[in-house]
Amino acid sequence: MTSGYFDESEIGDSRKAGPYFVSKEEIIQFAKQFDPRPFHIDEEAAARSVFAGLSASAAHTFAIFISLTFKLQPPIFAIAGMGYDELRLPNPVRPGDNLDLESTVLEMRESKSKPDMGILRNQVHLRNQKRETVLQCISSVLVARRPDAKPSM
Amino acid sequence: MTSGYFDESEIGDSRKAGPYFVSKEEIIQFAKQFDPRPFHIDEEAAARSVFAGLSASAAHTFAIFISLTFKLQPPIFAIAGMGYDELRLPNPVRPGDNLDLESTVLEMRESKSKPDMGILRNQVHLRNQKRETVLQCISSVLVARRPDAKPSM
């Protein structure tokens, strides 16, 4: 697993990225644009809510996950996300959190329509500094094949 | 289906929101922050890519979906998103697109842990002005129950 091509991936491979520091200002700014509910934009209202404090919008947490996918190490030549299954946000993202991403290959198959690409299905966990999962899903990602790869693995 | 409480929802109910106008500037600004790949931030590079033109980040499309959920009509007293299944982005979001959201109730059940809430499972479609789906998923949403609702429906 030294290059980013599909062909060098194996089931069970784990890639990591982070940390991503989440500031209070970023939480409020993102939520004002896309999810302006009081517990995402107003500290006092958030303290009184079921969330007991300011927390990031689910859309913001998802955006942080996507931003970390480009920093995964070892690298992977991801071309496009194809889909996301069983997306859950079991714990809130709080101001000051440091998030890191772990992506583990669950399944891999060649693309039927694109012989120069393969598809990796990954178990994804975005966790905070307390090792609590704040986002998890199964992502399906289109990945470049090695130029000299045989059409059938 | 005249109020936003869980108890007035029925399977098959459809709610709508939109349009949401997507500007080129917003696509580029969002992508620079969370998904700075050339086909999201550079028109010339995008024209040469497999996407054949600038397109919004998947994270941006998801954020637009979330922002429209608060504008659904008839309204719904949504407290929190619990999860998203089978999330797919079958067509790209382009500069100048007008997106609208349709959410249809698939299943409904009382919350076991929170007697004042219920859970709606919805089939969601975000579509552009050509009626192409740009995002689809099944969302599970925690919804307030009518204060006088019986503990068992």
What do these coordinates show?
Two copies of one chain form a homodimer. With 153 residues, chain A is an alpha+beta fold. Chain A is 22% helix and 36% strand. The first copy, chain A, contains four helices and five strands; from the N terminus they run E-H-H-H-H-E-E-E-E. In chain A, strands 1-3-4-5-2 form a five-stranded antiparallel sheet. The longest helix of chain A is centred in the middle third of the chain and has 12 residues. At the A-B interface, helix 1, helix 4 and strand 2 of A face helix 1, helix 4 and strand 2 of B. Strand 2 of chain A pairs antiparallel with strand 2 of chain B, so a sheet runs across the interface.
Which helices and strands, and how do they pair?
2 copies of one chain form a homodimer.
Chain A: E1 14-21, H1 24-34, H2 38-41, H3 43-48, H4 58-69, E2 78-88, E3 98-110, E4 117-127, E5 133-144
Antiparallel strand pairs in A: 1-3, 2-5, 3-4, 4-5
Question: What would the keywords be for this entry?
Answer:
alpha+beta, 4 helices, homodimer, five-stranded antiparallel beta sheet, 153 residues
| Largest interface, chains and sizes | A-B, 30 and 30 residues
DSSP helix fraction of chain A? 10-25%
Stretches of chain A where pLDDT is under 50 for at least 5 consecutive residues are none
Q: Give the mean pLDDT of chain A.
A: 92
Number of strands of chain A: 5
Structural class of chain A: alpha+beta
- Categorize the overall geometry of chain A: elongated
What quaternary form is this? homodimer
**What distance separates the N and C termini of chain A?**
16 Å
Major beta sheet, strand line-up of chain A: 1-3-4-5-2
Largest sheet of chain A: 5 strands, antiparallel
What order do the SSEs of chain A take from the amino end to the carboxyl end, as H and E?
EHHHHEEEE
Q: What proportion of the residues of chain A form beta strands (DSSP E)?
A: 35-45%
Radius of gyration of chain A: 18 Å
The number of helices of chain A is: 4
